[in-house]
Design brief:
Elements: E1 3-7, E2 10-13, E3 18-25, E4 32-39, E5 46-51, E6 58-60, E7 68-73, E8 78-83, E9 92-102, E10 114-117, E11 121-126
Parallel strand pairs: 2-11
Antiparallel strand pairs: 1-3, 3-8, 4-5, 4-9, 5-6, 7-8, 9-10, 9-11
């Protein structure tokens, strides 16, 4: 059974930082790209960042480019999202997800390309 468990969310003042983690079990983690998405109340789930199966390629939403950093440790089966210079508009539930296609050359942004999802972790940024 595949499980993705996020952690690291919390309450932070604008301008602050948080580091989210997502640990996987039940899948061959090193084969799959991983994505981060977020969903604010009343809004659709949106792409935040993704990383290739090797960790060599990362992509970001324009809204977080330059502030967020995505990395992974395949030995620990964990992917990380380092979030800096946080803004109130970053407030959302953050989800990690595993790409449904292994060994993809480049990570993808569409949530429909991700097959396994974590339960989410709340990030709240106050001004």
């Amino acid at each position: 059974q595949v499980q993705l468990v996020e952690s690291g969310g919390g309450l932070v003042q604008a301008g602050g930082s948080l580091r989210l983690s997502c640990t996987a079990s039940g899948l061959t983690f090193s084969r799959y790209g991983m994505g981060w998405f977020r969903q604010a109340p009343g809004k659709e789930r949106e792409f935040v960042a993704a990383i290739s199966w090797t960790g060599g390629t990362t992509i970001y939403a324009d809204s977080v480019q330059g502030r967020f950093s995505n990395s992974r440790d395949n030995a620990k089966m964990t992917v990380y999202l380092e979030m800096n210079s946080l803004k109130p508009e970053d407030t959302a539930v953050y989800y990690c997800a595993a790409d449904k296609t292994g060994w993809r050359t480049r990570p993808v942004k569409s949530l429909y390309e991700y097959t396994y999802w974590g339960q989410g972790t709340q990030v709240t940024v106050f001004s």
